[in-house]
Amino acid sequence: MFATPDGHPQHPEHFSNAFERRVARYRLPRIRLHDLRHTWTTLALQAGVDVKIVSERLGHASAKITWDIYQHVTPTMQADAAETVARLIFGPLVDASPDL
Predict the structure, then answer these.
(1) Which of 21, 33, 44, 49 has the most C-beta neighbours closer than 10 Å?
(2) Domain ranges of the chain
(3) CA-angle at 48, arms to 45 and 54, nearest 5°
(4) What is the pLDDT of residues 19-53, one digit of tens each?
(5) pTM of the model
C-alpha cells in the first residue's frame, strides 16, 4: 500500500509509526490511521461521488459492501436524490410564501 520514494514497498508499521509521530508533534486529536480511510469515504459519498467509484478506490469486492458499511453516514442522500430528480422534471420550485 505504501512505497518508499524509490518505489520499494514500505512495511505498514513504519508508515503507521510515522503517522502517529506527526499526530503527536502537531498535537492533533488522536485518531487511528484507519480512521482516515473512513473519513475519506464519508466525505466522498457526501460530496456525491458514485458509490461504485468509492468502492473501487477502497478495494471492496462490490459496491454493495461499501453501501452496506457506509449508508448510515449519508441519511440525506435519498431526499437529495428525490429533490434533484423533481427539479429535472418540474424545474426549480418557486417559494410560494408571501413576503412579510
Answers:
(1) 44
(2) 1-30, 35-90
(3) 45
(4) 899 999 999 888 888 888 999 999 999 888 999 99
(5) 0.61
